[in-house]
Sequence to fold (1056 residues):
Amino acid sequence: MSLEEQEILKEFIVEATEHLADIENQLLVIESAGSEIDKELVNQVFRAVHSVKGAAGFLHLEGISALAHSFENVLNLLRNGTFLPQACDTDVMLRAADALKTLIGELPGQGSVDGTRLIAELETIADRSTDRGAAQGMASALSQAATNSFEETPNESGTEAMSEPWQTAGATAYPAPGKASHPAEPSASGSPTPAAAAANASEANIRVAVTVLDRLMNLAGELVLSRNQLLQTVDQPEHRGLEAAAASLDHVTSKLQEAIMQTRMQPIGNLLGRFPRVVRDLSAKLGKHCELTIEGKEVEVDKSIIEAIGDPLTHLIRNAVDHGLEAPPVRSAAGKRPLGSIRLRAYHQAGKVCVEIADDGGGIDPEKIRRKAVEKEILTEDQARRLSDRESIRLIFHAGFSTAEKLSDVSGRGVGMDVVRSNVEKLGGTVDVESSVGSGTTIRVSLPLTLAIIPSMIVSVGNQRFAIPQANIAELVRLRPQEAAKRIAFVKSGEVLRLRGDLLPLLRLTRVLGMEKADDGDSRRSPVNVIVLETGNLRYGLLVDGISDSEEIVVKPLGRHFKTCTFLAGATILGDGRVALILDVAGIAASANFLGSAEPEEEGDAAHRGASTQGDRHSILIFRSDPSESFAIPMELVSRIERIRTDQIEFVGGRELLIYRGEPLPLLAVEDLVKVKPRPQSPYLHVIVFNTADRDIGLVAPELDDIREVTSQIDGATFRQPGVSGSITIEGRLVRLVDVFEMVERIHPQWVEQSSPAGAEPGTRVLLAEDSHFFRGQLATFLTSAGYEVHEADDGQEAWQILQDAAHSFDLLITDIEMPHMNGFELCERIRRSETLRGLPVLALTSLSSDDNAQRGKECGFNDYQVKMHRDHLLRSVHQLTGGGPTPVKRRAGGRPLQEVRS
Amino acid sequence: MINAMEPAQQRQHGDLQIATFRAGRMLLGIDIGAVQEINRDTEATPVPHAARGVRGVMNLRGEVVTVVDLRAALGMEPIKTDRNSRNVIVNVGGELTGMCVDQVADILTLDASSIAPLPRNLDAVDRRYVLGVYPLETEILLLLNVESVLELN
Fold:
């Protein structure tokens, strides 16, 4: 083929593809209009096919030309009013359109589609209709009107001078239809045999509104002026006018950037437009009756997102037809109308684009999902039972999940939904589902407006710069050195920042990156910059050296060699041409191994926790006065940690105290009760504030060492003495556990008396279920000394057996949560299900003071829920639950009141 | 573009144009078709925790391109860049990657039939990385298997 011929062919392909782009939707609209045929619309389709036929004939593309010819005949009859297309006729026409697109897409090859059968089918329709046509009265009048409009178009002539008519055909036969917003991109083909080659060709192209292009031209002009202005200043003495020129350039460049970004924005209708066909074909195949309504076609989204979201949306739509909507008889039986409806809606919300797929089908049954999850061994029975309905429904996004009875190629195989979710999340979006059994399901996909450019904050460590996406930044905290020293707890394996009453986990970016730490001496003197980051449910602070401006950056992907760098989300090129890496906020958190409540909600994650632990883990804060003697206090008891100047401590009445927040804070020290080496001289020390006997008390801790998690292997005997409840060995070092309650009892007995409730009723029987020998001993001891009759059980199983034994009857059950053989939740559930035991008050103890557990505890039927180590709160609760005493005042270690947990 | 992946010795006829460069003492060569450009800029922004052999990333006219230290990739001591060092930008696996080398040498035209397999006793370089050897007047040219070198295993 000569170069010229190649050019002509290329032009033909582009033009023909454009002609045929909207044909599918137009045919569907025509079909849905039923007997009220929209003549103008039919005319449009006719003209499109006619143009293609003419041009193909000119280029001797016989296959295309012949097919288009038969198609054109049928369309002619249609617009003459000669026949009313049945569903099967529309099928044939749709297939003919598909075939044409395929053949054009495969050019300059021969084409894989043999049009002869289609031609035959089209001719059958034509023959059938012309026979019928004679009987239709309106025919002649309509054909007259149709021919008139037909004659208006200049492309009627045959095959001579084809180049002009087909170019003008491009201009006139393809105007933007009034209703639909923009013509669909050729790549939006929903038929099962898409013209793949055509799709590729079209992906390299994009439709841009002429107004946007005009704007770009204007801005280009302004850019030229700005450049000239800048060049002039070079010649000026002392570069006079440089600032003005630079400002002007800055301004124009921003506007230019905006305008160019806009060219990439496409109405999402281009994509949504392919779904009517999908729904139509699929419903026909499955014998369902569905109606698809689309809202928000004009919502604009970046091209990159449109391309990426197509497949996931297709899957969701197919799912709605396949699984969501019931077959017509089922619907009628349920009192619904047999026509199922699927509503596809796109809208902007809070800087994101949302696409909703709502069906009025049978909904998702959470119970069925739970059963499937257990069957497929995704969850244990226990975990499944603990999931809320909402969490259960979310399981559909779990890999390996598909409740379809048999695998259809439509949407079975369980790979669909989780791929949808991961694809959406890869784009920085989220997907959520809401459903109610019998009424229907709504799936909501939310996406960022554009992937390519994001606002971000540039930070630096050392001389390297990094970018953090603005979306993840909650706030910036800048501390002067003295403040920093007070509000950051410097401990070895973890640091926390005290921020408005919360302890925020802190990470140093230098450490995350494995860079060498800067000289500590210097860093203590300079202000400290902390960026509070959020991702999902996780919140933490990142300590950096410097924070620069916020900038809009273009996100560039990192090459395959950096797949393992999970703390990076990409790279960008800054204004000075240097590369800055983009930090992945979630990835950093993952690599730092944040535990506990920080985990994002996912597939009943809350259910996993507590399902398989062996024993309690306690967080203890280790401190020392002398290097050789370490003490510890459980973190649950810690309200606050303060760093104070030693000279702030006052001596009143032979006791140390501190004026703290305007109030006197009594201070206790380990050496008050325990023989230890004297406190070393130091300008600063720490005070650990805890709360007991209704007041704040401070424990002096000269030097904080570490916060560790330990299992309950506490030795309660060897080093037992007043003020020390036990000891534990950590890395060969002996650490003694301070018993603050006992300390207070001993040193300020009058406070304890004032605040404690009246003694227990004699004969009150309490069953204590706790697997840790140490804690059981502790609890039993002080409960007994408060006057209760205490019986002990090693775990839930034993406690259950004791309760069942009718000889005993208890007034209260105090139970740990984490126990082997049967945990606290299960035990309580059993009790509540039992006829005889259901009225037994149950008090749950835990070392985890997270709200999650409180919620679940409430659901299981606990009467109250106490943190294990809080002795006086515990006593008060026991007193109240066994029938006497005032309402206990509950305060959590953080100083905020806990919600009442009462059944 | 001539495919860099095709082992040079399989071609029966015709000449090959090979771009050659030095890494340490070795003279290495790759098919010129695989070379996008040779750049003087050997600077790279380091990426923490990247694989051994990765120097970092660079800005190549608006694209962020990975830069590999060829010496490190071949198991040698890392490169110390000087004014002779160059960045050979290759297109492998659909991605542009830069290879930092000590020195760029000539572009040679080789007779494909003279390419010989790597002699068994020459263990200087891992077999995976060498497609073949070509004797020159004063030294041996090693034909580099770029794809496998850039795997950085």
User: Anything to note?
Assistant: The interface with chain B takes residues 464, 513-515, 556-562, 564-565, 567-568, 571-573, 577-581 of chain A (CB under 8 Å). The two ends of chain A are 85 Å apart (CA to CA). The first helix of chain A runs from residue 3 to 21. Chain A is about 40% helix and 25% strand.
